[in-house]
Design a protein that fits this description.
By secondary structure, this protein is α/β, with parallel strands linked by helices. It folds into two domains: 222 residues, Spore Coat Polysaccharide Biosynthesis Protein SpsA, Chain A; 169 residues, Hexapeptide repeat proteins (UDP N-Acetylglucosamine Acyltransferase, domain 1, 3 Solenoid), CATH 2.160.10.10. It contains nine helices and 32 strands. The strands form five sheets. The protein has an 18-stranded parallel sheet that branches. Bound molecules: uridine-diphosphate-N-acetylglucosamine and magnesium ion. Uridine-diphosphate-N-acetylglucosamine (UD1) binds next to β1, α3 and β10.
Length: 448
Protein backbone atom coordinates (compact mmCIF):
# COMPACT_ATOMS: atom_id res chain seq x y z
CA UNK A 1 0.00 0.00 0.00
CA UNK A 2 2.93 2.33 0.57
CA UNK A 3 4.55 4.64 -1.91
CA UNK A 4 7.43 4.77 0.45
CA UNK A 5 10.64 6.53 -0.41
CA UNK A 6 12.25 7.05 2.99
CA UNK A 7 12.66 4.52 5.77
CA UNK A 8 9.95 4.61 8.40
CA UNK A 9 9.88 4.08 12.14
CA UNK A 10 7.03 4.11 14.63
CA UNK A 11 6.93 5.17 18.25
CA UNK A 12 3.93 3.72 20.05
CA UNK A 13 3.12 5.47 23.32
CA UNK A 14 1.93 3.12 26.03
CA UNK A 15 3.21 4.70 29.25
CA UNK A 16 1.41 7.05 31.60
CA UNK A 17 -1.80 5.03 31.38
CA UNK A 18 -4.53 5.90 33.83
CA UNK A 19 -6.26 3.33 36.00
CA UNK A 20 -9.77 3.93 34.81
CA UNK A 21 -9.99 0.42 33.38
CA UNK A 22 -10.25 -0.73 37.05
CA UNK A 23 -8.59 -3.97 36.07
CA UNK A 24 -5.33 -5.63 37.06
CA UNK A 25 -4.60 -6.00 33.34
CA UNK A 26 -2.71 -3.00 31.90
CA UNK A 27 -4.92 -0.94 29.61
CA UNK A 28 -3.10 -1.63 26.34
CA UNK A 29 -3.28 -5.40 26.94
CA UNK A 30 -7.07 -5.35 26.89
CA UNK A 31 -8.36 -6.91 23.71
CA UNK A 32 -10.49 -5.84 20.79
CA UNK A 33 -11.44 -8.68 18.48
CA UNK A 34 -9.32 -11.02 20.63
CA UNK A 35 -6.18 -8.99 19.88
CA UNK A 36 -4.58 -6.65 22.39
CA UNK A 37 -4.93 -2.94 21.66
CA UNK A 38 -1.15 -2.75 21.64
CA UNK A 39 -0.97 -5.47 18.98
CA UNK A 40 -3.46 -3.56 16.84
CA UNK A 41 -1.11 -0.56 17.05
CA UNK A 42 1.93 -2.70 16.23
CA UNK A 43 0.06 -4.30 13.29
CA UNK A 44 -0.67 -0.84 11.87
CA UNK A 45 2.99 0.17 12.24
CA UNK A 46 4.12 -3.02 10.50
CA UNK A 47 1.57 -2.56 7.70
CA UNK A 48 3.00 0.93 7.15
CA UNK A 49 6.37 -0.65 6.49
CA UNK A 50 8.02 0.72 9.64
CA UNK A 51 11.40 -0.94 9.87
CA UNK A 52 11.86 0.11 13.51
CA UNK A 53 9.07 0.06 16.06
CA UNK A 54 9.61 1.35 19.57
CA UNK A 55 6.99 0.98 22.28
CA UNK A 56 7.30 3.42 25.16
CA UNK A 57 6.28 1.65 28.36
CA UNK A 58 6.06 2.73 31.98
CA UNK A 59 8.44 1.26 34.51
CA UNK A 60 5.45 -0.08 36.45
CA UNK A 61 4.17 -2.24 33.57
CA UNK A 62 6.21 -5.46 33.46
CA UNK A 63 3.39 -7.22 31.62
CA UNK A 64 3.39 -4.68 28.79
CA UNK A 65 7.14 -4.91 28.62
CA UNK A 66 7.04 -8.71 28.43
CA UNK A 67 4.39 -8.56 25.73
CA UNK A 68 6.47 -6.20 23.57
CA UNK A 69 9.64 -8.17 24.19
CA UNK A 70 7.96 -11.37 23.03
CA UNK A 71 6.61 -9.87 19.82
CA UNK A 72 9.30 -7.36 18.83
CA UNK A 73 12.35 -8.06 21.00
CA UNK A 74 13.94 -6.08 23.83
CA UNK A 75 15.43 -3.49 21.44
CA UNK A 76 11.89 -2.26 20.74
CA UNK A 77 11.27 -1.18 24.33
CA UNK A 78 11.86 2.30 25.68
CA UNK A 79 11.05 3.03 29.30
CA UNK A 80 9.57 6.35 30.35
CA UNK A 81 9.68 6.83 34.08
CA UNK A 82 8.08 8.90 35.42
CA UNK A 83 5.53 9.88 32.72
CA UNK A 84 5.92 13.62 32.18
CA UNK A 85 3.80 14.04 29.05
CA UNK A 86 3.53 12.88 25.46
CA UNK A 87 6.52 14.94 24.30
CA UNK A 88 8.63 13.48 27.10
CA UNK A 89 7.44 9.98 26.11
CA UNK A 90 8.58 10.43 22.51
CA UNK A 91 11.96 11.66 23.69
CA UNK A 92 12.26 8.49 25.76
CA UNK A 93 12.33 6.58 22.46
CA UNK A 94 15.18 8.63 20.99
CA UNK A 95 17.97 6.35 22.17
CA UNK A 96 16.19 3.26 20.84
CA UNK A 97 16.07 4.95 17.41
CA UNK A 98 19.75 5.86 17.42
CA UNK A 99 21.16 5.63 13.91
CA UNK A 100 17.74 5.76 12.29
CA UNK A 101 17.36 8.40 9.60
CA UNK A 102 13.91 8.59 8.05
CA UNK A 103 10.36 9.43 8.95
CA UNK A 104 8.95 8.74 12.41
CA UNK A 105 5.27 8.36 13.19
CA UNK A 106 3.96 8.60 16.74
CA UNK A 107 0.85 6.57 17.57
CA UNK A 108 -0.88 5.48 20.79
CA UNK A 109 -1.23 2.00 22.24
CA UNK A 110 -4.85 2.58 23.19
CA UNK A 111 -6.31 3.49 19.78
CA UNK A 112 -7.19 0.02 18.50
CA UNK A 113 -9.26 0.89 15.44
CA UNK A 114 -6.72 3.08 13.69
CA UNK A 115 -5.58 1.31 10.53
CA UNK A 116 -2.48 1.77 8.43
CA UNK A 117 -4.60 3.31 5.67
CA UNK A 118 -5.72 6.06 8.08
CA UNK A 119 -2.12 6.83 9.02
CA UNK A 120 -0.48 6.52 5.58
CA UNK A 121 -1.25 10.13 4.49
CA UNK A 122 0.98 11.59 7.24
CA UNK A 123 4.08 10.35 5.45
CA UNK A 124 6.01 12.05 2.71
CA UNK A 125 6.25 15.56 4.17
CA UNK A 126 9.32 17.62 5.05
CA UNK A 127 7.81 18.99 8.24
CA UNK A 128 5.24 17.92 10.83
CA UNK A 129 1.97 16.26 9.81
CA UNK A 130 -0.77 15.18 12.20
CA UNK A 131 -3.92 13.10 11.82
CA UNK A 132 -6.93 15.19 12.75
CA UNK A 133 -10.62 14.42 12.94
CA UNK A 134 -13.87 16.30 13.29
CA UNK A 135 -15.18 15.62 16.79
CA UNK A 136 -18.88 15.30 17.60
CA UNK A 137 -17.95 16.30 21.14
CA UNK A 138 -14.46 17.89 21.16
CA UNK A 139 -14.27 17.84 24.99
CA UNK A 140 -10.68 17.47 26.20
CA UNK A 141 -9.04 16.89 22.82
CA UNK A 142 -6.34 19.21 21.55
CA UNK A 143 -7.75 21.67 18.98
CA UNK A 144 -6.21 22.13 15.53
CA UNK A 145 -5.63 25.77 14.70
CA UNK A 146 -5.82 25.67 10.91
CA UNK A 147 -5.11 28.27 8.29
CA UNK A 148 -6.25 26.71 5.04
CA UNK A 149 -4.43 23.40 4.98
CA UNK A 150 -1.59 24.70 7.11
CA UNK A 151 -1.64 23.72 10.73
CA UNK A 152 -0.68 26.76 12.80
CA UNK A 153 -0.65 25.07 16.17
CA UNK A 154 -2.33 22.52 18.40
CA UNK A 155 -3.83 23.99 21.53
CA UNK A 156 -4.60 21.65 24.40
CA UNK A 157 -8.10 22.07 25.82
CA UNK A 158 -6.70 23.13 29.19
CA UNK A 159 -4.87 26.04 27.57
CA UNK A 160 -7.61 27.02 25.14
CA UNK A 161 -9.74 30.17 25.06
CA UNK A 162 -13.52 29.85 24.65
CA UNK A 163 -13.06 30.69 20.99
CA UNK A 164 -10.56 27.87 20.46
CA UNK A 165 -12.64 25.44 22.50
CA UNK A 166 -15.47 26.01 20.02
CA UNK A 167 -13.34 24.49 17.23
CA UNK A 168 -14.27 20.92 16.30
CA UNK A 169 -11.13 19.98 14.33
CA UNK A 170 -9.18 17.93 16.85
CA UNK A 171 -5.85 16.18 17.22
CA UNK A 172 -5.98 12.37 17.14
CA UNK A 173 -2.47 12.25 18.59
CA UNK A 174 -0.88 10.66 15.52
CA UNK A 175 1.98 12.75 14.25
CA UNK A 176 4.79 12.20 11.76
CA UNK A 177 8.00 14.07 10.98
CA UNK A 178 11.51 13.37 9.73
CA UNK A 179 13.35 11.84 12.70
CA UNK A 180 16.09 14.45 13.01
CA UNK A 181 13.55 17.29 12.91
CA UNK A 182 11.23 15.63 15.42
CA UNK A 183 13.89 15.16 18.08
CA UNK A 184 15.40 18.58 17.42
CA UNK A 185 11.99 20.23 17.93
CA UNK A 186 11.22 18.13 21.00
CA UNK A 187 14.40 19.37 22.65
CA UNK A 188 12.80 22.82 22.62
CA UNK A 189 9.52 21.78 24.27
CA UNK A 190 9.02 22.97 27.85
CA UNK A 191 6.51 21.99 30.53
CA UNK A 192 5.40 25.53 31.14
CA UNK A 193 1.65 24.86 30.81
CA UNK A 194 -1.58 24.05 32.68
CA UNK A 195 -0.70 20.38 33.20
CA UNK A 196 3.02 20.88 33.82
CA UNK A 197 3.70 18.31 31.08
CA UNK A 198 5.93 18.19 28.02
CA UNK A 199 3.35 18.31 25.23
CA UNK A 200 4.21 16.58 21.97
CA UNK A 201 1.70 18.89 20.34
CA UNK A 202 3.96 21.90 21.00
CA UNK A 203 6.28 20.77 18.22
CA UNK A 204 3.78 22.04 15.64
CA UNK A 205 4.18 25.66 16.64
CA UNK A 206 7.94 25.26 17.04
CA UNK A 207 8.15 23.78 13.53
CA UNK A 208 6.09 26.56 12.02
CA UNK A 209 8.27 29.22 13.68
CA UNK A 210 11.32 27.59 12.12
CA UNK A 211 9.55 27.61 8.73
CA UNK A 212 9.01 23.87 8.46
CA UNK A 213 5.75 22.88 6.78
CA UNK A 214 2.98 21.77 9.18
CA UNK A 215 -0.16 20.03 7.99
CA UNK A 216 -3.16 18.06 9.15
CA UNK A 217 -4.73 15.14 7.33
CA UNK A 218 -8.14 13.87 8.44
CA UNK A 219 -9.51 10.51 9.51
CA UNK A 220 -12.96 9.37 10.63
CA UNK A 221 -13.68 10.00 14.29
CA UNK A 222 -14.53 6.34 14.92
CA UNK A 223 -11.12 5.28 13.61
CA UNK A 224 -9.17 7.45 16.07
CA UNK A 225 -11.22 6.52 19.12
CA UNK A 226 -9.08 6.08 22.25
CA UNK A 227 -10.00 3.63 24.99
CA UNK A 228 -9.86 4.77 28.61
CA UNK A 229 -12.55 2.69 30.32
CA UNK A 230 -14.30 -0.65 30.08
CA UNK A 231 -17.26 1.18 28.53
CA UNK A 232 -15.06 2.61 25.80
CA UNK A 233 -13.44 -0.78 25.29
CA UNK A 234 -16.90 -2.26 24.69
CA UNK A 235 -17.67 0.61 22.28
CA UNK A 236 -14.45 -0.05 20.38
CA UNK A 237 -15.35 -3.74 20.23
CA UNK A 238 -18.79 -2.90 18.85
CA UNK A 239 -17.28 -0.67 16.15
CA UNK A 240 -14.70 -3.34 15.34
CA UNK A 241 -17.39 -6.03 15.02
CA UNK A 242 -19.50 -3.76 12.84
CA UNK A 243 -16.63 -3.33 10.40
CA UNK A 244 -15.88 -7.08 10.38
CA UNK A 245 -19.54 -7.93 9.68
CA UNK A 246 -19.78 -5.40 6.87
CA UNK A 247 -16.53 -6.67 5.39
CA UNK A 248 -17.70 -10.30 5.38
CA UNK A 249 -21.13 -9.45 4.01
CA UNK A 250 -19.48 -7.47 1.23
CA UNK A 251 -17.22 -10.47 0.53
CA UNK A 252 -20.26 -12.68 -0.07
CA UNK A 253 -20.65 -14.40 3.29
CA UNK A 254 -24.28 -15.22 4.07
CA UNK A 255 -25.24 -14.07 7.58
CA UNK A 256 -28.95 -13.80 8.31
CA UNK A 257 -28.25 -12.11 11.68
CA UNK A 258 -24.82 -10.47 11.39
CA UNK A 259 -25.33 -8.47 14.59
CA UNK A 260 -25.21 -11.73 16.59
CA UNK A 261 -21.96 -13.04 15.07
CA UNK A 262 -18.64 -12.23 16.76
CA UNK A 263 -15.41 -12.25 14.81
CA UNK A 264 -11.79 -12.17 15.90
CA UNK A 265 -9.26 -9.79 14.35
CA UNK A 266 -7.88 -12.53 12.08
CA UNK A 267 -11.01 -14.52 11.21
CA UNK A 268 -11.11 -15.61 7.58
CA UNK A 269 -14.40 -16.57 5.97
CA UNK A 270 -14.77 -17.22 2.26
CA UNK A 271 -17.57 -15.85 0.10
CA UNK A 272 -20.48 -18.25 -0.06
CA UNK A 273 -20.00 -19.58 3.47
CA UNK A 274 -23.08 -19.46 5.68
CA UNK A 275 -22.66 -18.22 9.23
CA UNK A 276 -25.88 -18.76 11.14
CA UNK A 277 -26.97 -16.53 14.05
CA UNK A 278 -24.99 -16.54 17.33
CA UNK A 279 -21.70 -17.93 16.12
CA UNK A 280 -18.53 -16.83 17.94
CA UNK A 281 -15.06 -16.92 16.40
CA UNK A 282 -11.95 -16.99 18.56
CA UNK A 283 -8.57 -16.26 16.99
CA UNK A 284 -7.20 -18.28 14.09
CA UNK A 285 -10.41 -19.47 12.43
CA UNK A 286 -10.41 -20.11 8.68
CA UNK A 287 -13.74 -21.02 7.08
CA UNK A 288 -13.89 -21.72 3.36
CA UNK A 289 -16.62 -20.56 1.04
CA UNK A 290 -19.36 -23.17 0.88
CA UNK A 291 -18.99 -24.22 4.51
CA UNK A 292 -21.82 -23.75 6.97
CA UNK A 293 -21.38 -22.85 10.64
CA UNK A 294 -24.65 -23.38 12.41
CA UNK A 295 -25.98 -21.45 15.39
CA UNK A 296 -24.29 -21.30 18.79
CA UNK A 297 -21.01 -22.75 17.63
CA UNK A 298 -17.61 -21.56 18.88
CA UNK A 299 -14.76 -21.80 16.40
CA UNK A 300 -11.14 -21.05 17.34
CA UNK A 301 -7.84 -21.96 15.69
CA UNK A 302 -9.73 -24.24 13.34
CA UNK A 303 -9.98 -24.76 9.59
CA UNK A 304 -13.29 -25.67 7.99
CA UNK A 305 -13.30 -26.64 4.32
CA UNK A 306 -15.97 -26.15 1.71
CA UNK A 307 -19.06 -28.29 2.12
CA UNK A 308 -18.33 -28.99 5.77
CA UNK A 309 -21.06 -28.33 8.30
CA UNK A 310 -20.47 -27.47 11.94
CA UNK A 311 -23.01 -27.29 14.76
CA UNK A 312 -25.43 -26.22 15.96
CA UNK A 313 -23.72 -26.08 19.37
CA UNK A 314 -20.32 -27.36 18.23
CA UNK A 315 -16.94 -26.33 19.58
CA UNK A 316 -13.90 -26.34 17.33
CA UNK A 317 -10.67 -25.72 19.21
CA UNK A 318 -7.14 -25.07 17.93
CA UNK A 319 -5.93 -27.67 15.47
CA UNK A 320 -9.37 -28.85 14.40
CA UNK A 321 -8.99 -29.33 10.66
CA UNK A 322 -12.16 -30.29 8.83
CA UNK A 323 -11.92 -31.36 5.18
CA UNK A 324 -14.64 -31.13 2.52
CA UNK A 325 -17.99 -32.50 3.52
CA UNK A 326 -17.09 -33.18 7.15
CA UNK A 327 -19.98 -33.02 9.56
CA UNK A 328 -19.50 -32.04 13.22
CA UNK A 329 -22.83 -31.87 15.00
CA UNK A 330 -24.31 -30.71 18.27
CA UNK A 331 -22.27 -30.88 21.47
CA UNK A 332 -19.19 -32.18 19.71
CA UNK A 333 -15.81 -30.76 20.73
CA UNK A 334 -12.88 -31.20 18.34
CA UNK A 335 -9.32 -30.24 19.33
CA UNK A 336 -6.15 -30.93 17.34
CA UNK A 337 -7.84 -33.50 15.14
CA UNK A 338 -7.77 -33.77 11.37
CA UNK A 339 -11.01 -35.01 9.90
CA UNK A 340 -10.67 -36.25 6.33
CA UNK A 341 -13.30 -35.84 3.59
CA UNK A 342 -16.80 -36.84 4.56
CA UNK A 343 -15.93 -37.91 8.12
CA UNK A 344 -18.74 -37.46 10.63
CA UNK A 345 -19.15 -36.90 14.35
CA UNK A 346 -22.74 -35.88 14.60
CA UNK A 347 -23.57 -35.86 18.29
CA UNK A 348 -22.11 -35.52 21.79
CA UNK A 349 -18.44 -36.40 21.41
CA UNK A 350 -14.93 -35.33 22.39
CA UNK A 351 -12.31 -35.72 19.69
CA UNK A 352 -8.95 -34.57 21.02
CA UNK A 353 -5.52 -35.19 19.43
CA UNK A 354 -5.74 -37.49 16.47
CA UNK A 355 -7.01 -38.11 12.98
CA UNK A 356 -10.28 -39.40 11.56
CA UNK A 357 -10.12 -40.99 8.11
CA UNK A 358 -12.34 -40.36 5.10
CA UNK A 359 -15.99 -41.14 5.63
CA UNK A 360 -15.38 -42.58 9.08
CA UNK A 361 -18.38 -42.27 11.38
CA UNK A 362 -17.83 -41.42 15.02
CA UNK A 363 -20.93 -42.32 17.03
CA UNK A 364 -22.70 -40.35 19.73
CA UNK A 365 -20.92 -40.31 23.07
CA UNK A 366 -17.51 -41.26 21.70
CA UNK A 367 -14.58 -39.96 23.71
CA UNK A 368 -10.94 -39.82 22.65
CA UNK A 369 -9.25 -40.44 26.02
CA UNK A 370 -6.21 -38.38 25.11
CA UNK A 371 -4.81 -37.44 28.52
CA UNK A 372 -3.48 -39.53 31.40
CA UNK A 373 -3.05 -36.60 33.72
CA UNK A 374 0.49 -35.98 32.48
CA UNK A 375 0.80 -36.70 28.75
CA UNK A 376 -1.32 -36.36 25.65
CA UNK A 377 -1.61 -39.20 23.15
CA UNK A 378 -3.24 -39.65 19.74
CA UNK A 379 -6.18 -41.59 18.45
CA UNK A 380 -6.06 -42.59 14.77
CA UNK A 381 -9.19 -43.78 13.02
CA UNK A 382 -8.90 -45.22 9.51
CA UNK A 383 -11.07 -44.45 6.50
CA UNK A 384 -14.60 -45.78 6.62
CA UNK A 385 -14.34 -46.98 10.21
CA UNK A 386 -17.48 -46.99 12.32
CA UNK A 387 -17.18 -46.16 16.01
CA UNK A 388 -20.28 -47.36 17.88
CA UNK A 389 -21.95 -45.01 20.30
CA UNK A 390 -20.54 -44.42 23.75
CA UNK A 391 -17.09 -45.78 23.00
CA UNK A 392 -13.98 -44.70 24.88
CA UNK A 393 -10.88 -44.82 22.68
CA UNK A 394 -7.93 -44.88 25.05
CA UNK A 395 -4.97 -43.22 23.36
CA UNK A 396 -2.48 -43.97 22.01
CA UNK A 397 -4.64 -46.18 19.87
CA UNK A 398 -5.01 -46.85 16.19
CA UNK A 399 -8.18 -48.15 14.61
CA UNK A 400 -7.73 -49.47 11.08
CA UNK A 401 -9.74 -48.62 7.99
CA UNK A 402 -13.15 -50.22 7.86
CA UNK A 403 -13.12 -51.32 11.51
CA UNK A 404 -16.47 -51.58 13.28
CA UNK A 405 -16.32 -50.83 17.01
CA UNK A 406 -19.27 -52.14 19.01
CA UNK A 407 -21.17 -49.60 21.07
CA UNK A 408 -19.98 -49.03 24.57
CA UNK A 409 -16.50 -50.35 23.93
CA UNK A 410 -13.44 -49.27 25.82
CA UNK A 411 -10.78 -49.65 23.16
CA UNK A 412 -7.27 -49.97 24.55
CA UNK A 413 -5.56 -51.98 21.79
CA UNK A 414 -4.91 -51.18 18.15
CA UNK A 415 -7.42 -52.78 15.80
CA UNK A 416 -6.42 -54.06 12.33
CA UNK A 417 -8.34 -53.01 9.23
CA UNK A 418 -11.85 -54.41 8.82
CA UNK A 419 -11.94 -55.98 12.30
CA UNK A 420 -15.05 -56.07 14.45
CA UNK A 421 -14.05 -54.79 17.90
CA UNK A 422 -15.84 -55.41 21.17
CA UNK A 423 -14.36 -53.95 24.29
CA UNK A 424 -17.20 -54.54 26.70
CA UNK A 425 -18.79 -57.22 28.86
CA UNK A 426 -20.77 -59.78 26.91
CA UNK A 427 -24.56 -59.59 27.28
CA UNK A 428 -26.28 -62.42 29.16
CA UNK A 429 -30.03 -63.18 28.75
CA UNK A 430 -31.64 -65.26 31.54
CA UNK A 431 -35.14 -66.33 30.43
CA UNK A 432 -37.83 -65.44 32.99
CA UNK A 433 -35.38 -64.01 35.49
CA UNK A 434 -36.79 -60.51 34.99
CA UNK A 435 -40.12 -61.61 36.37
CA UNK A 436 -38.48 -63.16 39.44
CA UNK A 437 -36.46 -60.02 40.00
CA UNK A 438 -39.58 -57.86 39.92
CA UNK A 439 -41.51 -60.13 42.31
CA UNK A 440 -38.67 -60.01 44.78
CA UNK A 441 -38.40 -56.23 44.61
CA UNK A 442 -42.18 -55.80 45.04
CA UNK A 443 -42.39 -57.99 48.14
CA UNK A 444 -39.50 -56.07 49.68
CA UNK A 445 -41.41 -52.81 49.16
CA UNK A 446 -44.71 -54.28 50.47
CA UNK A 447 -42.97 -55.49 53.63
CA UNK A 448 -41.98 -51.91 54.59
C1 LIG B 1 -3.31 13.87 23.79
C2 LIG B 1 -2.92 15.09 22.95
C3 LIG B 1 -4.20 15.77 22.46
C4 LIG B 1 -5.03 14.79 21.66
C5 LIG B 1 -5.30 13.55 22.49
C6 LIG B 1 -5.96 12.51 21.62
C7 LIG B 1 -0.85 15.95 23.88
C8 LIG B 1 -0.24 16.96 24.76
N1 LIG B 1 -2.16 15.99 23.77
O1 LIG B 1 -3.97 14.35 24.92
O2 LIG B 1 -3.87 16.88 21.63
O3 LIG B 1 -6.25 15.41 21.26
O4 LIG B 1 -4.09 12.98 23.01
O5 LIG B 1 -6.37 11.42 22.41
O6 LIG B 1 -0.17 15.15 23.29
N2 LIG B 1 1.56 8.87 27.31
C9 LIG B 1 2.80 8.41 27.65
N3 LIG B 1 3.55 9.09 28.53
C10 LIG B 1 3.14 10.25 29.10
C11 LIG B 1 1.85 10.73 28.76
C12 LIG B 1 1.09 10.03 27.86
O7 LIG B 1 3.22 7.35 27.14
O8 LIG B 1 3.88 10.83 29.89
C13 LIG B 1 0.74 8.14 26.37
C14 LIG B 1 -0.54 7.63 27.00
O9 LIG B 1 -0.39 6.30 27.42
C15 LIG B 1 -1.52 7.67 25.86
C16 LIG B 1 -1.01 8.81 24.99
O10 LIG B 1 0.33 9.01 25.34
O11 LIG B 1 -1.51 6.49 25.08
C17 LIG B 1 -1.81 10.08 25.16
O12 LIG B 1 -1.69 10.54 26.49
P1 LIG B 1 -2.88 11.26 27.24
O13 LIG B 1 -2.41 11.65 28.58
O14 LIG B 1 -4.11 10.46 27.14
O15 LIG B 1 -3.02 12.58 26.36
P2 LIG B 1 -4.30 13.45 26.22
O16 LIG B 1 -4.36 14.40 27.37
O17 LIG B 1 -5.47 12.63 25.95
MG1 LIG C 1 -5.99 10.60 26.25
Amino acid sequence: MTSQTRPRAAIILAAGQGTRMKSPLPKVLHRVGHHTMLDHAIDAAEALGCERIVVVVGDHSPDVRAHVEKRLGAASIAVQDPPLGTGHAVRAAEAALAGFDGEVVVTYGDVPLLKASDIEPVFGGEGVTVVGFHARDPGAYGRLILDGDTLQAITEAKEASAEVLALTACNSGVMAAPSALLFQLLAGVTNDNAKGEYYLTDVVELARRANHPTHAVFAEEDAVMGVNSQGELAQAEALFQKVQRETFLAAGVTMPAPETVHFAWDTQVGGGAVIEPFVVFGPGAVVAGGARIRSFSHVEGARVASGAEVGPYARLRPGADLAEGVRVGNFVEVKNVTMAKGAKANHLAYLGDGAVGEKANVGAGTIFCNYDGFNKARTEIGAGAFIGSNSALVAPVSIGAGVVVGSGSVVTQDAPADALVFGRARQVNKPGAGLAFRDKAKSKKDAR
